[in-house]
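Lab notebook: predicted structure, single chain.

Context: the supervisor wants predicted structures on file for every construct in the current expression panel, including those that have not yet been purified. This is the next one on the list. No modifications to the sequence; it matches the entry in the shared construct table.
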Amino acid sequence: MLSSKNIKSDVISGLVVFLVALPLCLGIALGSKVDPISGIISGIIGGIVVGFLSNSQVSVSGPAAGLIAIVVTSIEALGSFQIFLLSVVLAGVIQLVLGYLKSGSLANFIPNSVIEGMLAGIGITIFLKQLPHAVGYDKDFEGDETFLQTDGETTFSEVIKAFDYISLGAILICLISLLILILWDKYKLQSKIKFLPAALVAVIVSIVVHLILKNSALAIHEEHLVKLPTDFEAIKNGLSTPDFSAFLNLKMWSVAFTIAVVASIETLLCIEAADKLDPEKRYTNPNLELKAQGLGNLLSGLIGGLPMTSVVVRTSANINAGAKSKTSTIIHGLLLLVCVLAIPKLLNLIPFATLAAVLLLIGYKLASPKLFIKFYNYGWNQFLPFIITVIGVVSIDLLKGVLLGLLSSILFILRENLRKAYIYNTEKIEEGDCIELVLAQEVSFLNKASIKESLLNIPMGTTLIINAKETEYIDLDVLEIIQDFVQVQAVDRNIKVQLKGIDAHFKLINTTKKFNNFKIKH
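Prediction complete. Output recorded below exactly as produced.
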């Protein structure tokens, strides 16, 4: 539901997200090699339509950097932007179907360490990607999150190269903006002028400084400013419609499925992260989110927009700005629509350096050193998946980084499962040692090796109790190992075996009769 209770904080946060989203929408469109309006359309629909339909109170949707490579290669393969738009429409339909099939529930299986690692990795990526913009080097487009860039550089080499192209005017504006952003929050200046967020003040001041420096040696060049089309005809020409005659094109359907799957995964990851960052810890229905995203992509494709997902950068900016409800998301979409139509020339005076300052702080907050310390203190089984996800997101991309984190988490789960298949107890009795193996609730084939080794190491002449009273499932492989031990090895090594609660498991595979010569206690 929309909320008017916190309208002031939502208006402020909506304005901040608008300032962050504007260059990102343009940059992602530039990186995708399409008209800038396509990125703006996606941002507007992501804000207004998806924002209204979603039950996430803080996540923000729009064109995603993670889809850039898919967009570029798909347009080249299909040979037409209009055919690509049809694939976006159908991707939206597929997402709607996935939502009704309740596929969004898969998001619940992503470990916290991986989600937090993803956020920290994105934070580091944002910070590193904004450093060149902060010093006035804008060869790589705003919104790029990939390690290997289209200009042939990497995230790290781009930072080093940027210092060969320093613009003192850009550095000055970035430093002034950072000072405003930090002091505004630190000294609570917004309490005196509540309707002015720090980011807006920084943008206004940066425009003034830019105009003052315009004819000086510190002047900022045009390429370091936001670039929007300034006349209605250019905006109108940027609108496109799908080519429905390509409906039976198999390549187009392949692209549609690819967009639907990748966009859905990124969205599910983002809403998990958004719920984690939300100060009020509200829960987002992932299936409803897929339906909202599906309708958003359907509409975006119909009028010439790029495919969209829920996006971590804009969501983080929204939360950091104090958003309380999805009203802020809708406001950011409305601002994109109104301002692009009404004041494009004014928006084109905004330096990238001041927007870089906003994103630098967002990146730092996402990758706070305290977060790394916290996961280190949790132990290696949490820290390693966390740090592997961070490294993967920074050095490859978001999806592959998360996949690496998931794989490492699974390995730790398997390791713990192997270690906790049973409890091994030893005590002295009159006849000698008595050893008890208490099996876990679930004993799978993964526990086969450890149980086999433990049985082989049982000393001769001891009493062995295999306790399965609390065990609900024992894999056939493990049952066969126990059977072989009882029938052969225990006899040869003079080991007395008592089986507790295990006969029911043997009945399931019709092997109980083979244990008639052994004492079974229930």
